[in-house]
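Risk register update: the risk of archive-format incompatibility is retired. Evidence:
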Amino acid sequence: MNKGKKLVQQLMQENASDNKSSKSIDSKDINPLHGTMNCGACCIAEEMRIRGVSCAAKNINGMLIADVAACFKGEDENTFDRLSPDCISETGNGKETRDNISAEIAKKYPEGSRGCMYMPMWFGNHFITWEVKDGKTNFKNPQDSKVDLTNECFSAMIKSGTSGADWVGIRTMRWDNLEFNKDLTDEVLYTDQGSLNKRFYTE
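Archived output:
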């Protein structure tokens, strides 16, 4: 077993618990190998931990929308809903963009729902997670919780170009009500088999 995998398994064992909120989950447990291209895998790992599954994201290359959706049974890229490109501030104001998207997600999905969002940004695209709580949308960056989402991510979202919201779209996917596809999650996550068998599906 290589050194990196031993580290991951040690951290999973130390931090295994029945997590019920993304706030109680630290990105260092989700992304112990400090991957920089594995944002999709980190989002999936966070959702698994919320359901009580001890896991960590593998240090893989970037995932596409279809790759993330396929980690849930019967889902594909069409599972992702498009948000209006007009959510993005014309002046690059990160807070305005964040507030606009927060309001649209909270209106679109029911209270208590969770999922992920695909962000079109000028330096590359990114996945983060969201949760609707008390009528508002809370965002989190499972890959690295130290990142300032408002000033580093929402402010970098773009409308135009082949990677922009007009072309690719701001995409959101609800997944708290979906079942994982074990065959594919094994490709992007390290999992502890005991907790995986115990609490793999939706509750």
